[in-house]
Amino acid sequence: MSILIKNGRVIDPKNNIDADLDILIADGKISELNKNLDPKKATQIIDASKKIVMPGIIDLQLNLREPGNQYKSTLESEMKAANAGGITGMVCPPDTTPILDEPGLVKMLKNKSEALKLGNVYPLGALTQELNGKLLTEINDLYESGCIGFSQAEKPIQDTEVLYRSFQYLSTFNLKAFLRAEDAYLSEKGIINAGEISTRLGLKGIQSISETTAINKILEIADLTKTKVHLNKISTAEGLNLIKIAKKNGVNVTCDVSIHQIFLTDNDIGFFNTNCFLKPPLRKESDRVKIIESIIDGTIDAICSDHSPVNEDNKLKPFAESEYGASSAELLMPLIFKLSDEYKIDLSLLVNKITYQPSNILEINKGNLSINSEADICIFDPEYPWEINSKTLISEGKNTPFFNQNLTGKVSSTIFNGNIVFIGH
Question: For 27-101, where are the E strands, in sequence order?
């Protein structure tokens, strides 16, 4: 099977391409990239006029909810939702049920996802057994079973000695830690950002020092042990300042930010809107502004969806008793386009942060449109108007802070390994 994508605006940050070109796909790979390719070379033609053609998105934080949480969603439903967002690479954290701390569970997840042929799933193995923060897992066995890195998901290691030993082990085998920076004691029982909104709503707040204390500890140990670290979902201006300094000092650290933190603040919680119950919590406007600045200046390496579908019953509970998380895989690219449009940020710079930069962080050869590379492609219609609601979202989780809002721009097709896995409008 061969596919010719014609007349699209091709954006490929790795190869510094932003031009109107055709792409020919043959035997699952990109075989030609040029102007006016002969239609006779293909068995199928996709007209991409007025559309953006870019590498398939690699999402560094996408909760697939399997194994064990099928009442929220299934592996197939969320991989299809990811495809509807142009995502072909999915990094899933280990806080499933059971937790991904056994090689057999990782192999099962890999085998099941590969059978669906909807994208590449990159599991993060648990750094400690049952994410208990006490006993290290068999890290090397997990790596050999298919884990691309190691994480504690939303359960930070409290014991500094355990964190130190885990970094020593990872460093020995040249493996990477993917951590969300949070001090468990400082954030204990916290619900939202500490400030005026938490006071008004009577909800326990989480101070920004919870994030910065953890970042300081992680960076110092990473520097000492020469461990590669990726920090997930940074939410505070102070935290970004620390990471910027660490990078200048040669610490091997990268970081990402959730798409929610780019557009929302704790003010959006309004009158107990549980769709805004997220981890880390939505912060202040000054933090949001700093995040946008840090995307532009390169302190933030990547942008993730933080897709975490939650069933409706758990969102209908009182705010403090509800479950954190939101569906966002289908919104990542439309919101990236909105960010580029509203803040006049070069679209190629932003596409880089959801395609090639994540592939660099994962140390894989993906996220580009090079000749002979595997044909993972997102085709995005920047002019398509749509409303975010329960009918337009494919994910089993219908909760998002952007619910009922109108957006301009939607993924129209997604190709994985040379096969069309999503066709929209």
Answer: 29-34, 44-47, 52-55, 57-59, 87-92
pTM equals 0.97
Looking at residue 72, its pLDDT comes to 67
Instruction: List, run by run, the mean pLDDT of 10-residue segments along the chain (425 residues).
Output: 96 98 98 96 96 98 83 86 98 96 96 97 98 97 98 96 98 98 95 96 97 98 98 98 98 98 97 96 98 98 96 92 96 98 98 98 98 98 97 94 97 98 93
Q: Is 268 a catalytic residue?
A: no
Give the containing element (helix H, strand E) for 172.
Answer: helix 160-172
State in Å, rounded, how far the first CA of the chain is from the last one. 23
415: left (phi over 0), alpha (psi -120 to 50) or beta: beta
How far apart are alpha carbons 27 and 271 in whole angstroms?
53
- Identify the pLDDT of residue 277: 97
Q: With contact defined as beta carbons under 8 Å apart, do 216 and 253 qualify?
A: no
304's torsion region: left (phi>0), alpha (psi -120 to 50) or beta? beta
Report the distance separating Cα 254 and Cα 218, nearest Å: 12
Catalytic-role residue among 101, 256, 306, 381: 306
Is the C-alpha dihedral spanning 336, 337, 338, 344 positive or negative?
positive
DSSP 261: H
Q: In the beta sheet, which residues pair with residue 243?
A: none
- Residue 83 CA, chain-centre distance (Å), reads 13
Place of tokens 């000492």: 224
- For residues 2 and 38, what is the distance between their CA atoms, to the nearest angstrom? 12
